[in-house]
Amino acid sequence: MAVYFFYGDEDYNIELELSDMSSKLNPDFKSMSYQVLDNPPYPDLITALRTPPMMFGNTLIIINAENYFLSNKNFFDDSELEDIEDALKHNPETLDIVFVVRLPRNEGKKLDTRRKLYKILSGFNIKEFPTYKTYKTADISAWIKKQAKSKGITIKDDAVLFLIEQIGNNLREFNTELDKLKLIAYPETVISKKMVNEICISNQDLFNLTELIMRNEKDRALLEFQRLLDKKHPLELLSAIQTMLRKWIILKTKAASSTLAELSKLTGQHEFVVKQSLEKLKHTSLRDLVRLKENLFEVEYKIKSAESVDMISEVECAIIR
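Now predict its structure.
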């Protein structure tokens, strides 16, 4: 088998790669042939690397190694690193070993390539998983189409671009929306822009709701909220609004000192969407955005902790508060 080294700030692509590898294991023995270790100390790591061959099929060991690279201290001395390198070079044929370093998203952090462990691992199967740039719509489009194909559906070009305008570069969210679109389209397998528009809440939808709240037009805000419930479960809607508010708060606090490209990177949105949002937020105060986010966070926590009797009413109360 082989040794792999996966790293990057697009954790969802890393997750998909690991999922694909684990799906190839014998399902009858997966509890024994699949193991995940989080930054194990040397004794545990070297024991895992020297796992003897199994009689019932291949083995996959995932080693989450963020602390090995992102902390200030060195985890292994020179003799331990020599043992690790020797174990990897004599890896059993039935064992796959994957070192994984998930970098913080949108923080621009890089691996310290001067570390001896990096030099050892880079001699094997190394692969970077970077976040897609929001302006590279062709790359994101290709990913969406590939993911759609894996689900047995096809998505039209205009529908893909519409999704990107609304979501940006959040691959996990794209995947969730594709699952919903597959259900909506059944028994058809082709996804149109109309279907996307019907199921996906757009930035404009969320802005309309928030703007009505800010203008103290609570009756219209509640009607808009009820309309959006046709597309989303209350908790999904809360999460979408919270995400949007977080991005808007970033835009309000960073707009004066950042370029469009920088704001796009910070929020994970297409520059076109960032420009639109900045224009719409001109007359909205940062204080009001923060207060609304706090109110919605409070009710979201209450719902998730099972303290809420009627979640829809709870959200409506947070809106009109």
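The chain has a mean pLDDT of 86.
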